[in-house]
Amino acid sequence: MKITIPSPETLPQAAAQFVEAMKGRTLFSFNAPMGAGKTTFIAAVCKALKMEDEASSPTFSIVNEYHADPSGKTPFGKIFHFDFYRIETPEDALDLGLDDYFDSGVPCLMEWAENIGSLLPEETVEVTIDVDQNGVRTVSFDE
Q1: CA atoms 63, 34, 109, 90: torsion sign
Q2: Per residue in 89-107, is it b (16+ CB within 10 Å) or e — as a string?
Q3: Which of 16, 48, 114, 142 would you call most buried, defined as having the most Cβ atoms within 10 angstroms of its Cβ?
Q4: If 0-12 CB within 10 Å is exposed, 13-18 middle and 19+ buried, where does residue 9 land?
Q5: 3-class secondary-structure state, position 64
Q6: CB count, 10 Å around CB of 82?
Q7: pLDDT tens string 28-45
Q8: What is the rounded CA–CA span in Å between residue 18 and residue 70?
Q9: Ramachandran class of 117: left when φ > 0, alpha when ψ lies in -120 to 50, beta otherwise
Q10: Whole-angstrom Cα distance, residue 11 to residue 17?
Q11: Half-sphere exposure of 5 (CA within 13 A, CB side)
C-alpha cells in the first residue's frame, strides 16, 4: 500500500488510512532517513488511534508508552513507541525486555529498527517513508 502525504495538512487523513490498514497487526518498523518524518507520522497515527498522550521522540528513553483517551473508541489501550537510534547492538535491546513488548499484543511502532537486526519478529511490517524533491512524503508497506 502507498499513502501519499502532499502537505502537513493531509497528515491526519494519511494516518487514518494507515490505521485502517493495520488490520490487527501490531509490529511496525518505520524506515526512513533522519528528518523524513518518522516521529511526526507516528504521532499522527497515535492521534488517529485516540491516544491521550501526545507522541514525541523516545530517542533518549528508547521507548515511550502512550495511553488511550478514556472517552475515545480505540482498539488499543496503549501503544509502545520505540526509537532504536542509540542502540549499538541487538543485545542492548534485549536488556529492555524487548520480547515482552513484542509478545504483549500492544502495537509497537519502531524507529531505527535496523539497529536491532535479527531481533525483529518475522511478522513485523516494514514501513518505508520516502521524501521527494518537493517534500511530498510517501508511506509504503505491504498489506
Answers
A1: negative
A2: eeeebeeeebeebbeeeeb
A3: 48
A4: exposed
A5: strand
A6: 25
A7: 999 999 999 999 999 999
A8: 22
A9: left
A10: 10
A11: 26
Question: Are 84 and 116 within 8 A, CB to CB?
Answer: yes
Q: Is residue 62 within 8 Å of residue 87, measured between CB atoms? A: yes
75 residue type, one letter: P
71, three cell numbers: 472517552
Residues of the chain where predicted confidence (pLDDT) is lower than 50: none
Decide if 140 contacts 128 (C-beta within 8 A). yes
- Give the distance between the most distant pair of CA atoms in the chain: 41
For residue 74, what is its C-alpha cell?
480505540
Quick one: pLDDT at residue 44? 97
- Contact call for residues 82 and 110 (beta carbons, < 8 A): yes
The confidence score (pLDDT) of residue 29 equals 97
Burial grade of 7 (CB within 10 A; 0-12, 13-18, 19 or more): exposed
CA 111-100-98 angle, to 5 degrees, is 40
State which amino acid sits at residue 71. S
- Locate the DSSP E strands across the chain: 2-5, 27-31, 63-67, 78-83, 108-111, 125-131, 137-140
pLDDT given for residue 10 in this prediction: 97
